[in-house]
Every structure is written in C-alpha cells, then in structure tokens.
Batch of 3 targets.
Target 1
Amino acid sequence: MPRIRSLSVAATLLLVPFASHPAYALWPAPLGLVSVCSAPGDQNSTVLTTDGAGGMIAAWVDTRSGNADVYAQRVDAGAVAHWGASGIPICTAANTQYHLTIVSDGAGGAYIAWEDHRNDPFNADVYAQHVNSSGSAVSGWPANGLQITTVANDQDSPMLVTDGAGGAYVGWHDYRTGGNGADVYVQRLSSGGVAAGWPANGIPVCALTGDQGPVNLAPDGAGGAYLAWHDGRNSGATGFDIYAQRVLSNATVAWTANGVLVCNAAGDQLTPILAQDGTLGVNVVWTDHRTNGTTGADLYCNYLYNNGTSPFPGNGQIVTTVTGDQINPAIVAGGPAIAFVAWEDHRADAGDIYAAKIQSGIATVNVPLCTAAGAQTAPLAVTDGAGGGIFVWSDARNGNGDVYAQRLGSNDAVQWAANGLYVSLFGNDEFYPAAVADARGGALVAFTQFYNAGANELVAERADHFGYIGSPEPVITSVTDVAADQGGLVHLVWNASFLDADPGFTIGTYNVWRQITTGAAQLALARGARLLREGEPASGGPAIRTLGAGVNATTWEFLGSVPARAYASYAFPAATLQDSTATGSHDTVFMVDAQAASGPDYWHSDPVAGHSVDNLAPNAPANLAGNYGAGATHLHWSPNTESDLNGYHVYRGASSTFTPSPANLVGAPADTGFADPGPAGSYYKLSALDVHGNESGFALLTPAQTSGVGGGAPLAFEPPSVRPNPIRDGASIRFTLPAAAPVRLELHDPQGRLVRRLIEGRVEPGVHELAWDGRDEARRALPPGLYFLRFECPLGSRVERLAIVR
C-alpha cells in the first residue's frame, strides 16, 4: 500500500535543498493508506485504543494460521508501524479467540481481552493480555494471555475500561450458574495481573434469575467504573429492562445489590451504552421497544448521579421516537454533563446517520450527520478533544462498502463536508471500521480492505480536525545552530503542508512559535502582546497563544511568519531563549503552524527542540606589556572590543612553551591590567573570554620583554597616543612610564575649559592603557567637535588634538 504521498518539488525558500531532508513519515494524503497488517487470511473485528502519544494500538481477529487468533499492531502519530509489517501475536492458542476489547494502560501500552475457546470449543473463557509500548507482554502476563475466568460454562462478551490508575476493569456476560441464566461479572486488572484484593473469577455485579445481557462499562473518574446491562429478571411482565451499577476499586459495589433500575417501561429495552460526564455521574442511552412496533425501535436516555439516583426517576427521556428503527447507538463524552450519541436511522431509507446531544440525561438537539443515498450503518464515536465528537460509519452510497466520518462540534453543528468525509477513498470494499482520537482533534480510523482477488488487508488513515484526510501539518526537519555567529539563533527548517500545493493552495502563511514559561507570557501580555484565540491569525505584532489545557497546557510566543509559496520546504532564523555552553545545554522548543489562506483553520507541527551556540571566540589581546617592580609583575594590554567580552585570563609558566590550564591560571581580571606577585622573570600568556566561555588565542610575554627584569629591555617614556582619532563612541589612550611619577591627564574644550579629568596622581612604571568612553565628567556624551587632551608629568608633557564625530 502507498505510505508516502507524492508532491511536486518546487524551489525552496532560503536555498534549502529538498533532497537533503531526511524522510519523515506522515499519515498519507488522499489516495494513500497506511498498512497495519498485510498477512494472508482475514483480519477483522478490529478494536483501537490510543498509544498515549497521538498514535494507536490496534487488535484484531486474525486467521493467517487457520484459526481465529488475536494479533496487534502499534502505529505512531507519524503513521509508522512499530510491531512488524503484519503485527505481533497476542494469542495463538488452540481453537478460536474473538470478541475483542482494548483499552490504554496510560503508559504507552494496552490491555486486550477476548473470548477464548482453547479449553472448550463450545464454552468460552475470558482471557486478557497486557502489552507495553514495544509490544512485549508485561511481567506477570503469560504468553497467549492470562485466564480471567476458570469457572464452568460460557463467559463471553468482555468489555474493558480504564481504572484511571494504570489498570483496567473487565466486565463480561457469565453463565457459571447454568440454569439461572446469564449474569454480569467484573474483574479489576493491574499492571501485573489481577488487582490485589480482587477474588479470582471476579465479583458478581448482578447474579439474579433471568438473563442479564452483555454489559457496557465507563470509568467513574474516581478509580471505579459504571456498568449497565439489559436485564430479564422481570421479563415476563415488562420484557428486558435497563439496570446499572457502580463498582469501586476495593472490589465492592456502591449501589443497591444487583443494580439500580434505570428503565422498566413496557417492551424490551436493550444494549445500554454509557458515557461518564466529567462531573458527578453518567449518561445512559439504550434502544427502546416500548411502543411495540408503532414507531419501530427508538432511543431513550437517562442520567445517574454517582450515588445511583437520577433526576428523572421515571423511565428515561426521549432521544428520538420518529418512525422507523433507530438502532446501533454509539456514545462519546463531550464535556461536563454532556455526551453525544449517534445512531443508525431508518426513518427514510436503508439507513442514515443521526446524532443527538445529551445533557444530564436530556436530549437537546437532533442533527443529521449523513442522509446520502444507500445504507449508512453501525456508527462509532470518539472525542474531538474540543467538546464535540467524531463519528465513523460504514457507507454504501458508492455501490461498494466505504468508510465515512463526520465531526459534530460542541456548538451542535456538523464541521466537515455535507454527508461526511470520505475516509477510505478507494474503489475496493472497506468494512469493519474502528476509530480512536488522535490527540489533535481528529481521529485515526482502521478498516479491512477487500481486493477483487479475495485478498484483504488491514489499513488505517487519519481524518484531521478540520476534515482533511492525512497529515496537513508541516513537519520540522531540523533545528541547527547558525554557524560562525555570536549565538542566539538557530536555523529552523520544515517540510511544507501538502495543502501548500496545486490545486487548492490552501495554506497562506507559516507561523513560527517559541515555547515560553507562563511568567514570560504574562510579562509579554503586560507589555502589549495579544493573546490569540483558537485559529486567530498571528500577524500584526507580538502575540501569545496557549495549546492544550490543565497540566498539559503549553504557552507559545510568536516569532515571525513566512508566506506560503508552494515550496517543498521552508526555513527561518529563529531566536533562542538562551545559548548552550560547555557548562550546560539549554534547548529552546519551536513549533510551526500552517495557517489557511482564508478562514481560521491551521495545522501545527510537532514541537522540536534545538539550541544555539556562540561559535566565535574573542581575538587574542594585543599589545601585552609588563614591568617588574615592588615585588610584582605589572601587566598591561589593549582592551578587546567584542560586544560579548567577559574578561581575561592570565597564565604563568616557566617557559614559552607552557600550556595554559586551570593549574597555572593566576588571574581573571575584568579590565586591562593585572599585578602578579609571582617570581620575577616568569612567562605569561594572556587570553580573552566571552560571556559563553569561549577563550581566545594567547598573547605571550617573555622575561626579555618585561622591564625591570634582568635581561629585559628598559622602558622608555612615551607620551599618550589616542586610537581611534577621530572618535565616535570612545577611544583607547596609551602611554609608557619608565619610572613611577605623578601624572595629570585632562580633556579640555577649544576654550580651555576642563571637560573630563582622567588621571590625577601617582602612576607606577609600565605600559598603561586607559579606555575612555567619550563622555564628560558628568558621564554625558560629548557633542561632536574639537577637543584637546593635556598630559603632564615630570618626565614630559603633551597636548594632543582630538575630534569627536557622531
């Protein structure tokens, strides 16, 4: 199957060569699918859960070996399959395994449970397996799964939900009592197997006479689980009714023994489904036959608080009672007290898809998701991460079996193309869809694709948040330091969105963002930065935006934009928050979003970190001179002019070939002079350092170059010289004294008035370098013009003319 979309390669911005980019896998654009399993035999009855990082873990019934076995595959957020080309075996025991259920373990792995006939071809047991993110069974879980039930007769129809603490609850339909009918049992699983304190073979949720139908579960948000089932305890009077129970983490039930009544209206009420509402309770929806065929099967709902009571103690609230059957409902939580339910609707034809919003047990709106020709059947539901839901179904409008999807927003309006988004986009038959949220507001959809020759393959595709197939997001391919600079910048390169191309040219701009702390964001807002809403364009000055919520929220600062030009890749010089040095690495995190040319749609890349480095060391200090006197060697040199200078290092050795090291470092002055009390006649090496720890080359001073040392050249008097001249921002004033003397050094204006007294007092012998900042006595910048530098001492005097230009 095709895995990588085909794009025309155009010229790239800032001369970024497309061919130099590494290959990055993505969910392919339309007419491309990701292969999950291409083994011989059938792969069907697929179930999905999240891998916790925007990807999916799939499990399915597989007949490649001639039996119905259980296999699994992990496909990450970038569409890369991790567990081999055709998945890994979860269970290949004798006889058949089927009716799978799966749930994330919250750590990148999953729990998988199924009906298993290895011990009896006619009666099933429940088995489960716990795999980690690598596909290996977690310690304590045997090959081919852990046996959850060992009692007589059938245990079937298992369902898993998370316990919110790294474990799971599994409920099932249980015939252990024989003639008593089917009962409902539940077991809690932990990372290592059956949870501590829970008995083997689970605890009874309902074990009364009469059939208690397959159970549906939802987490209660407090470490326990809600369960609901259709119940035949009073089938002779009212048919099947709806009951529910709450199970606590300590292996006890919280409500009335054998469950609380949800609905016992006349006729059968069947197959309840649950959605925990994020507050205090759970929404329950079921298929209802109370009208005895007048309107066909209808849908009703109710709401239960976490204490088992309901605000509607009757027989539930109407979701829909229109003519024709409304069946196969699917439900997803939408926010506090809110759920969305979709169903297969036969009011008009062979099947349409409708949805309703349920708020605390009341249906507030009915919305058609698809009324296209042909049959639309068996919807699935996952969250869109923004208070709405994404619904996936099988669709026959094109004469083949296809897969379509629709998003219903929190505003109760459909978000994608009328009658749904065509997910499968191939001429073959595609059936048995499964779906999971992709952590970006879209959904990952897996389905079985049948070919004309009778072969089939399990494949997957992504429907993104805005109703596009594949991955429209740009992909950052590199964040590298800008070479030969003083730090502070990285070279950010990304591959274009596939929407940045003919025919749509959907993308208008790429925006570059830098992650910052909440405190930095608050400071930026106080200084006038805009706080952007979802999808609001970033152009127009400083801007801040937040992605995610709660502990997962991240804050981003807008750095700049690059216009979309249908190039294959783009680049941007991005400023970092801090340079990395030899003493520590300091990464900055960047993100790029592709903003639609019109409308609020945008697609952001995965965040990628990188760091900048100051690659340039200062120049070696110049004009190093020294004089030995009064028990010390007095060193002097010209100041370095680098803007990031942090000071100097002075090293002392016994020969000109000594290697500077921390062991012979004798001083770290910040200015251009240093007195070393070490022995006369030493060798000195001097370096300059910048704020990032880069060290220059070394200036060498030998004993022969040091006055006052035997064999050293005597110092001669040199009056002051000024460099540069004319002066813009300051100058260096250098003079030499062969002996100590009183010195006066002053600056005067053309009228002879004192402007700045630079030196007045005794000065030791040696070469002296004075940095003057071009300012007067009050530290004010001097205006342009002519000035005079007057030097006086017993050894000589001098007046030098200076010119200041601005």
Note: The mean pLDDT is 91.
Target 2
Amino acid sequence: MTRPRTRVRVANPADGGFLYWLAKLYLFGACALVAVTIASLPAIYVAIASHAPDPPDLAAYRTEAALESKIYAPDGQVLSVLVRERRALVELPEVPPLLIKAFLAAEDRGFYQHAGVDWRGVIRAALANLKAGGVRQGGSTITQQVAKAYLSPERTIQRKLKELVLARRIESRYSKDEILYLYLNHIFLGSQAYGVKAAAKVYFGRALGELTPAQMATLAGLARAPSRYAPRANPAAALRRRNQVLKSMLEAGFLARPAHDAAVAEPLRVVSEEHAEPLPWTQASHFVEHVKRLIGERWGRDRLPRAGWSVSTTIDLPLQELAQQRVWTSLRELDKRQGYRGPIMRTHTQRQRRDLLRRADAIYALDQLVVDRPYAALIESVAAGAARGRIGSRRRITIPLSLMAWAAPYSRTDAENDRTISAAGEALRPGDVVWVVSPPRWLRRRDWGSRREAETSMALDQLPRVEGALYLYDHQSGYALAMVGGLDVDRSSFNRAVQACRQPGSVYKPVFYSLAMDSDKFSMATILQDKPYVPEPGEDWNPQNIHGTLDGRVTLHMSLVRSLNLPAIQLLNRVGAKETARWARRLGFTTPIHADRALALGASCVRVDELTRAFATFARGGTQMDPVYVRQIRSRNDEVLEDHTAPEDPVLGEGDRLDRLWAQSGTARPQVIDRRTAFLTARLLRDAVLHGIAARCQIVPAPTGGKGGTSSDTMDVWFSGFTSQWAATAWIGDDSYQRPLGEKEASYTTAIPMWANFMRDAVGKRPHKEVPATVPPGLKAAVIDFASGGPPKPGQKSVRIYYRPGSFQPGETPQPEG
C-alpha cells in the first residue's frame, strides 16, 4: 500500500526568476565592493600620502619665490628688468579686503568653512558638468589650487588624489590667512604675472589700493583660465567673466547693489604692455648685457631672473648717451665716404607703392618730422639736380644733389673713399625705397619738418655697415661710465668693447716702449734708426712708415710721438719680443700674444677694455685699477650682497662714504710697473697729443695723452687715451674683414676725431689735473732738439724730456736742466 506524498508549500515564494536573482547578486557584489573600498581607504590614503610632497615652507617662500630683478643706473633709472615670473610679494594686510572677497566669490565662497576640500562643491560641480556635457565648473578649493601649484600639471586620478592629500596637509599646518597669502602671491594670472600685486601693475598700471571693484573682479576672474579670459587678447570674454564675478560678489553679500551696478557699467580698460612698467633705458644695452654676464659668472646664470635683486650699476647716462651719439655720427661719416650700397628695396607696381605709403602712414607721425631720425622714403621722380618722393602718402620730400653727392657706388674691391656723383640719377631711380634724414642744421629752415613746408628737404642716408666701439672708465674710482659695443644691439648683440679681439696697430707701441723705459739702457733721447726695411730673400713682410721714411737717426721720443714704424721694429728687437709678451701680461692683457717682430706693429689682437686699463695704468703711476660695473647688489630684503662703491661715489651719503673709506682702508692697488716707468710712458703719450699725430685731442678742455693705431689693410683704427681722471678707447673696424676702411683712412681721420669730439663734450667744465701729475723721485729733466735729440738749436723745435740718471748712452747726453 502506498503512502500519500507529503507536499511542501512555501508560504512566501519569491518572484522575478533568473533576472531577479542575477540583479540581487550584482547588488550584493556592489555592496561588498563598497565595503571593501571603505575598509581600504586608510591604506589608499597611506599609499597616496607616501608619494605626496610636504606642504610648502611659508618662511622659505618669502625668500625663495621667483621675483623679478632690476638693473639700475646710479640715479635709479631702470636699465633692464629680468623676469621669469613677474611677481611682487604682498602681505595679506596690504591686500584690499574687497579684492580678497572677489577671489572668494569667484573661486571658493566657503573657504573659511571647509577643511581644505569642499565635498559639496565637488559634487555640485560634477553634476553641473554632467548636465552641461563638459567642464563648466571646477570643484577645487583655494587650498587645492595652492596644492596644485606644487604638483605636476598632468590630469590624472593619481595627481588629483595627491592634490587632496596635500590640501589637507596645508590646512593642518597653516591658518586660513597664511593659505590666502600663498594663493594671492603665487597664482598665475596671465601675461607672466604671478600674484595679485604684479597683475594689478601689468593689467592696470596701478597699486592694489588703487583698484576699482570692477578691476578687482577682472583679476579674480582670471584665476580660472588666464588665457581664455585675457583682457588684452579676449576682451569680450574677460568682460563676461568679470561680470560673472561681480554677480557672485553680489549674491554672497560682498558687494551692494549700487556698487555692483556701477562696476558692471565700468568699461574694461587695460594699459598697453609697454606702459605697464617703466620702459628700460635702451641705449645702455651692451653695458647691461655685460653686467648680466658678470653676475652670471659670480652667482650662476639662472639666478638673476628669479632672485628679486636690485643691481645698481656704475653707468653715467648722459655720458652713455653722448658716447652713443658720437659712435653713430662717426660711423655714418665713414660709411658715406665708402660709398652708396643701394636702396632698401625697389618697388615695381603701383600696388606695391600704395602699400608702402600706407604702412609709412601707420608707422610715422608725419605732422612734424624728427631731426636725425631715419625715414623710409619712396622715390617718385629723379632729375639731374634732385630726386623727389614721399614719406607716407601726404609728406612730399626733395633730395637735392648737394645732400646726396656722396652716393658713388660702393665697391668691395676698391677701397678708394670720398668719391662723388654729378647727377642724382647716378644713384637713384623712380621706385627706389631709400633712407632719408634731416639735412645739416645750417641747411634747415626755421619751420623744417612741419606741415607748412610743401616739399621738405631731406638728405640721402643709409645704415652704416662698419662697426665701432667707445669705452670710458674712471681710472681713479674704477667706475665704467660708458660702453658702446656696436652701432645697434638689435642688429648685433656682440659687444666689441669687451668681447672682440682686434689687431691694435700702433696703439700697441706704448706696451714695449714702456718696457724700454723700465730699463737704464733706454731713455727718451735714445737714438733709433729710421731707415727703409730691407726684406730678407723670399720674405713677404715689408713694413713702412705711414708718412714715409726720414732715412736717418731719430730719438725714441720722436719715434713714438710721430708713430714711426721702422724705429719701433728696431726697439722691439732690442727689448725682445718674449720679454714684451711677459710685460704685456703684467699690464693686464689676457688675449693671445704672438711674440715675434710683427708685435712691433700690433699684430697680436687686444680687447678694448684691457687696452684702456693698460693706458690707465700709465696715468695712475703704475698701479692698476680694474673697471667696476656693479656698484651694489641688494637682495629682495634690502640686504647688501655686493658692495663695490667707491668712497668718492657722488650718490653716497656721508655715513655710507665713511663706511666705504673704512672698508677700503689698508687695501692698496697693485703696483704692476715702476712709478718712474709709468711717468715716462705717460709723458711720451702726453707729447703724442702735444707734438704728434693726435694733436686733434687738444680740443679736449683738459690735459690728455694717448696713442692711435691703424691695423694692416686698414681693417681697424684705434685711439686710446686718458686724462687725470678718465681713460677711454675708440675703435672703428670692419667686423667681417670684407673691405678696408679706406686707402687713406687712418686713426687720425676716424678714431682720433671720434675720441676727441666725445671727450671734449664729456669733460666739459669738469676739473682735470695735468698728466702725468708729478715727477717721481729718481728722474731728471732735460731739453733736447725734437728731431735729433741733441742740444736745443735756435729756431728749431725743442722738447722737455725726463730720464733715469745713467740711462743715456755715450754721445746721447743732453744738457740737463738746472
């Protein structure tokens, strides 16, 4: 018998089937994952924290944050601004409260409530971005933005987690105000501006306390995206963003409705970039670049642009400007003597000419032409006696033949200068675009350059191809006062005053003449032979005197004063080329020296600054003063890092002057050559001005001495000289050795006039003593016949010489004075 089957009935059956159970499984897995994640959070935090950087050191930030450095003239004129990050630190109490509120409204309204991360803000931003389908809001707090600045710029989850960890660390170490200090000084706001103080100056040319509410909102709006809301590049976007910040300030209660409405109505005005900062004084570019190199050698090349230093230099701005003018004038004159190299360009169609004139209208202010400024002019017609054209569409000009007669064709192979043309058509033709400049002063009408002239008379001009340098330093204080390293630093940044090594020609002669004066074997009356050089068989070297050979006996004195080459070669042979090289090292020359007979004519190259220092050594009585370019370097905290000021510095106060006297007490300048030797050499150089080819230097209203030089093939011309206070060197040459300066050019046609004209205006009424000043013990004086060296002759030129007792050779002894 079968028993009935018992059925089990489920009172609460589940429904949903397979999908229901599958969903339930996934839900359970998700809950387990969340639980595991929550349990793992401490471990994740520890892992991320181990790789996150430490919070920034606030004390170190004040001393290490990148700040711009400035180079100044002694009077405070800005010469250069060196900047990697344009930043100026400002303490929080100095920041207007409304500016702080503008940043809080724009970036982190709950800054004072959260602990570094605003989770509600993060969620709110995420939802807004999901809704918009892109990034529209950022959830980063101000603390996170500070943290972000110390992390890599990559956009990864790992970097974001590090940002959160670092933000918490910053909050735990610093107060809210200290975090704001970091933020407001470190945040990038575009145009190289870091921090609010720098941005206020860059965009508005104002201090923080002078900003309007609208300007504050503009700065705060830049924090999100400086390039997107750049006021100069994207003014419409910047205006919209500014108004958004103003609305946020209103909603947060930071700004009242009337102030909000007034700020919204305010136009968005920013200053141009060149007016955001005082413009550097551009005529000292070579000087400034040399100062940068010197500081880079001492402190590291990358230090200055971020150090926040104030560098005071020794430059004298009026003298620098005068030197620049003299170099420019001298190079233009020589360049024109070499000939005309043709127009800037040639136009061939009416459209080209219209475009050119339209560009000239935009570039030049043509209501009043500027004296000595070059203008690009279009030549429209050419006749025998003049050419006519235009500067811009409305300024008509004429170039008379008399103001372009110099424009004979330039030749690279023919070094004949001073050729002229007899008709304007020999140089110009219609369609040429040429440089023109104002005529000489005596040819200008009273209303020259004004619109009242129907046709303005101009002179044909061209930019010089030759180069020049002019260097001046005070050999008593050591201050370098002026340095022109070339015609135009934009054309060539190479500094020919301190970097170029060029053949000096006869300007090198005082080096070995001073070596002779250091010996009892030679005196100013020593007889040398001035006879034609007889080359050895197969020898190419055949030196000559510039003005011919006297074919007889001359004194050492006359040999140097008249710059005779043949006696100089004889003297070098007698003192020795190797000894001359060693002597040159004592005088401070560091350039390579070829110790052979060609050294007598300056075959080894020298630098302008070293040559000037050597000549100053003669004027100083044998002690040497190195040029000084930097007066002081002060740190961002006004601490003196370097102090090279001389006690006689006119800018120093009495207290500082006494401090410098004390600091330099007991420090003597090295006596590199004997005092008597220096005096005798300086006397020879003084006589070169009084009785020699440097007679033009007598126009300087102070006693001067010096020596000129012309290198082989006339590629370089020099003059180096001194007064009792200053030493200066002028150089003109062809950088590329392409063409001699001219067949008949020499130091007395170019370098000496440039030096003399500059020094005449530079000295002015400044008091200068006689050079050399006093006769040192151990020397005697005599008067000799200038030509023969014998006793003075009636009706013949005689000169006073000085000598060491016993330095005359038999038959050379003159009648001593007294």
Note: The first helix runs from residue 17 to 51.
Target 3
Amino acid sequence: MNTADLYRILTSATELSAVEKAITSFESEQAGAVSWVPLSRQNNRGTVEASADPGRALIERLTNGTDAVLEAEHDAHHGVPNCRSPREAAAAWLGVPDRGLSALDQGRRKALAQRVSIQLLPGEDRFRRIVEVRDTGIGLKPAEMPNTILSLNESNKMSKHYLAGAYGQGGSATYAVSRFTVIASRHDATPVVGFTVVRYMDLPPEDFKIGHYVYLAVNGVVPSLEVPLNDFPGGTVVRHYGYDLSQYTSPVGPGSLYGLLQRALFDPVLPVWLDNRIHNYRRTIKGVRNALNGAVDEGDESGAPKLSHSVPIFYVSLGDFGSIGIEYWLVQPSEKQKLPSAGYVDPYKPIVLTLNGQSHSEFSGLLVRKYAELPFLRFRLICHIDCNALTADAKRLLFVSNREDARRGQVRDLVQAELVRVLNSDDDLTRLNQEAKQMGQKEEDENAAQQMRQEVARLLNLQGLPITRGATAVATKGGDTTELSKHPRPPRPAPVPRPPLELHEPPTYIHIVWPDEPVPFHTLQRRYVRVETDANSNYHTPQKPEASRINVILEGGDIGLAGTTPLTGGRMRIILGAKKDPAVGATGRVRVELFRPGLPTLTDERPISIVEAPKAKQRPQQLTLPPFTLKPVEGKEDPNWNLRNWPEDVDAIACDTEVEDSTLVIYYSTVFPQYATRLAKLEKQDTVLAGSFRKRYEIWLAVHALLQFQDEKIAEAEVSPGEQLEAFPEDQLEARDNQERCRLAIMSALFAENEIHQSAMASASALDAAM
C-alpha cells in the first residue's frame, strides 16, 4: 500500500470499511514513516466538539468553500476593488447583484453554484453517511495545510474583510460526527495534490482524561503526489466517512439536508450545488430569503411562494451599535400545510438573524404572538434581521463563535424591541391578523356568557381570590383585596382596511399621517411615523438615501432619524427617535420633501415636542384578570383547529387560551375523549343533564384558565421578557402546556360530572321529602 494507493481509496471509497482497511494497511506497510499529529495542539477536543448539530457543522464547511472561491477571485482581480465584506466581493468579482441571488436568472445561479458543492452518498446507513464538500477555490499547498485547514483558532482570515471566516474553527466541528475525514487540496494549477485523513484518537486512560483529534502525516509532513489536472481541478475536497445525519433523513422539507441548507444559508453570498445520491436529485441552494423573494430553480415544484404581505429590507439605526436590516414576509394560509412557514423556517423560531447571509440565531415566535400582538399570524410570518451593519463591538456582544445562538444582553434586547416596534406599526399586519382571527368565529349568547362569568367569579371566590360578581375578575397578591373593575378597558377597534392609493407620474402630494399637533417624544423613545404620497416606489431608495427623491429633514437637535421603510403602494414609515437625555420642553419640526425634476418640491411637516418620560411602573401588587369567553372547537374540521395548530391526535389537546383584544379566549375541543364520552353518555340518559354537564365543564375550564393566567402574570412580574422568551423553546413549552391542560380538562370533566350527579340526587331527595 503506497501513497498513490492510499489517495485513490480515500478519495473514492463508498464504504467506511474500505477506508479503515486502507489506513490499517498503509500504517502497517509504512511503519516508522506514518505518524498521527494533533490538530494545532494536544488538547483540542473541546474546540472540535463545540457544535451540537451535525448538520450545522456542514454549513461551516460550505462557508469555507465560499471563502476559498472569494480568495481565488481576490487573487485573480489583484484585490481590486478593496472589498470590505463577502457580499461586496461577490458583487465586484462574480457579478452577484446587490439585491442578492434572487436578482439572477436560474441559469446564472446554477452556474455559480458549481463553484461550491455538497454531495450526499448512502454509506452504510443514516448514522454513517458519506458527505463530500468540494470547492473550486484557491486551494492549498501541502505545506500550508497544517496551519490552515488542519488548524484550530488560527488567524488566517482575521484581517480579510472579504471573507466570512474569523474564528479559525471553520468546519472542524465535522470531525466530531465523522469516523474519518479525508482532505485533499490543489493550489491553483500546481501539479501536486496534498491529502490527509483526520480522526479521533484515544489516549492512554492511565495518563490522559480524554483523547484528541489527529491527522495523518508521512515523515512528519502532509502526504502529497502528482495528480492530472483533469482528475483533480484546483480547489479542495473534504470527504466525510461515517457521518451521522440521522436527524436529516427526509428527501426534502424541514427534516432533510436540503431543508437545512436552505434555512441555515438563509441568504448566501454564493449559491451551493446539492447532489443527493440517496434520493437521486440535484438542486441549487439559494437560501430561504431568495426563495421568498421569488427565485425559482429547477426542482422547485411548488414554484414561488404565495404571499399575503411583504416588506422589502430597510435599515434601522441602533445608535452606537450600528444598524440592522429588517424585512418580512407573510405566507398565505394553506389547507395542506398547518404551519405555512414550516417550509422555510422553524415555525416556532421564525425570526432569523444573519451575518454574511448565514443564519447565526433564530428568535422565538413569542415575539410575534405575544409582544407584537399578532397571534393569528405566528405560523405565517417570517422575519429576517440582517446584522452585517452592526458595529464590531455589537456583533461580539450579540453572537457566539459557533453561529448557533445569540447572546443575551443589551444588543439582543435592542434588536428584539426594534422588531416588535416595526411589526406593531404595520397596519396591514394588524388588519390581516384581525381577518385571520375572524375565520371560524361563532356568535356568542351574551346572556349565557354573563351567567358564566358570575359562576366563575363564585368559584374563584371559593379559591380565595376576591371577586365581585358580574364584573371583570381580578387576582391579588399578598392578601390585598381590590374590587373588580366594572368598566374594563375596551378592546382595540378592528382595523379598517386602507384603500389603495392612486399613483401618479409626476406625483402631486406627500403627507405625514399625523394630526395637526406636535408629535411627542420622550427619552430614547422611537416612533414609526406614517407617510403617504402618490409617488411610485422608485422615488425612495432606503438602501441608498443619497439617490432617494424623498428626504426627511429634522429641525431641533433632540430628535434623530433612525431610518425609513421602503415606499410601497404610496406608503412608507419614517423612524424617528429622541436622542439621549433630550431637554424636556424642547421643540422642533419634522419635514418630508419630495423632489420632482423640473417641478416644485412637495413638502409636509409636523411640529415635535419633547415631553417628560412616564415614570417607571412599580411591580403591581394586584393582577387584573381580563374579560373571558369560551369558544368550542367542533373537531378537526373546525377552521379553528388548524388555526390553533392543534395536533392530529384528539387525545393530545383539550384546550388552549389566547388574549385577543384584551379578552382571554378559551378554546376547547368538543372531541376531547374524556369530555366527549361523558357528554354522549349523558345525552342518551337525559338531555337536560347533558346540557348542565356541558355548562359545568365550561365553568371549570374557565376557572383553571383564569388561575393559570394569574400565575403567568405573577411570573412575568418576576422575570425579564428575555428570560421568558428563551427559558424553553416554544414548541416544548406548547407541548408541556398541552399536557397540563389535558390533565386539567380531565379534572374539569370529573368535577362537572360529580356536580350534576349531586344536583340530581339533591333534587330527588327534595322530591321524596315533598311527597
């Protein structure tokens, strides 16, 4: 077994056993020359095993491949122009438009994707796949490999702003989930190919606690040989044997390697070519963002997504931390797909944060459902936060080095708060949420509802919660008693659909949508102020303010412009914020100007005033429970079943709750077996008893829901929103809550059944006594 034989087997084997046999034979026949060298240092296991997801680890290999291609282009163009980001480099040297890959045609995307490819081969089974990542980038000389692709935490890319890599870990995480990793590389068009194999090696347990990761060397150096250029073009191949892809077994969709690549490479700088030999298809990986923006490639059977609403990317200043880009898409509801966003993102984490187009973290859907008050859009709304324009300090404070999460702290809080403000200020989202809510709603008997409230108030009184009948419930802490409010806050009025604006060329007006009174601001407050005009969208380019014909001018030094949204259908929003420590009582003006070539400039303005900031609210000693109502869900055919994302198994869901327009709505399943079987039995015996059982069941469900609501409010007063968001993943929280509500529903059915039987017995005793 010589070096050429070893190279041939390592780069072409289709079974793990062939690689193991070749390495053993080579070690035996080249005894004394073969050694296993630790990657960078002897204690390297912690660095290699930093990533928890085998699929995410492969993304780093693809990122390395993209960097290699950009490095080759840098050399080919002699570093001109001086690109300060991978996206700038892709635009300057490879012709990728500023708008991203969606602006290229299908053929051009496919051609670019051949520069970086990933091939999936069967291997032995789903726990031992063969995965090969290939790039046609700059490649490496054998002598360079120990300090580059075989190194850990080196500084090869720290000063190269046109590359994505920074930490020097690269794709090393793949070693932890691969039995053997073969690396071969040719620098440019040189005749020599360097190659080696990386594996985990145990160390003597009597001397060492753990083993480490090593690579094969011959006479102390990476082995090499001459290979015809046609057999191995310039670039690098990383071939993983025995790779654990057991989490990604589906051919397509969320549980597939294709779905993972689309999500993790959310907006890639360059496309990637996927060659799936297990399911026999090949696809261009262009990222979810480009798919949502209408890019369709060969194999995309469903075509472009159907959207109810979308807002193109715009940038918002975060002050000293730089700025973020925000864009979002609302997928149309689908009868076939209970979670319409699941084809693009994790539906429980639909807010994606990216750097250089790669997903670095996802935020919980609680931001959409609870804080942005859009509960009926939570499984349809997809948000993208582009973090490239954050300062270096902000990126360091926000992201961890393995690109799998966002660090809790000030920057994270600012980003989340800004996204909530954006979503809250979008009237179309508010209207669409209201429309979704109205699907499947039924009329309610107000008299019956009032009786229900009174009975629930009585039962809550029995639980030690002071309640005034016929009014809104209130829960107290520390034994304090507060009378229920007889005038609860009215629900938010339903949004009125805004009529489309008629656009003209040239435009004839621009208008700030605010009453003729000062716009108030207090310390660090942000406002999204609406602007309407009959100008076409090309009059405003938020990404390039210097080219925009709509300008925002501020008079008075206490208010700053944080950004603007795109102009769509004649509507846009300008983002204004009070600067730090503004002087209370200070005044100014905000003016919008629309420049028309050869015609007078159109303007509108409003006064601005700085008001005293509201005093911080103390943690309440009493908690007010909202008005409530119950809504039966009549089986899986009921529209609310899908709208609530209830499971197919009727045993797994009994009820859930949502606060809608200041009302606690309790949705309950009429086919939950513990309830439905008792009701059916009673209906055969006595319809009156059956009706009484149904009402008592609803009462007990309401009691439990209001008690649970009280506990949640107390918990919210004890911890910060950030802690609430990330204590558990939202899907795990929902599964846990469903289990708890099923137990409570069973108790409610038992209580209700017991009560009606006791009532029947009491009535019978009274009748006997009368006779």
Note: DSSP finds 18 helices and 28 strands in the chain.
